[in-house]
Amino acid sequence: MTDCLFCRIAAGTIPAKVIYQDEETLAFEDIHPQAPAHVLVIPRRHVVSVDECGEPDRTMLGTILLACAKVAKLKGLPQRGYRIVTNTGPDAGQSVFHVHFHVLGGRPMAWPPG
What we know:
Number of helices: 2
Structural class: alpha+beta
Shape: globular
Number of strands: 5
Radius of gyration: 14 Å
Distance between the termini: 30 Å
Strand content: 15-25%
Order of helices and strands: HEEEHEE
């Protein structure tokens, strides 16, 4: 999708500070970080949200979660902990409609979130 911000980042037409990438995923620094470490992990393939995923997306979702864990390790987060978040829909705070997971860490997290 040429009008999707994250598709354009994945295609390399918009620059991003890439932390990790493989054939299926791309992880890059959030431009509005909410924690000392805040990385977005996206599938290279356009999918609007988790709500639109189905059984065929099982492998893609697992691959994204494994990429989130790799990103956390690259950022040195496992020792103290980190949070993986995805927002689905506008009321949940999804502002870019390309499924993405936030890896947040480097500070204590409050509960409940939001």
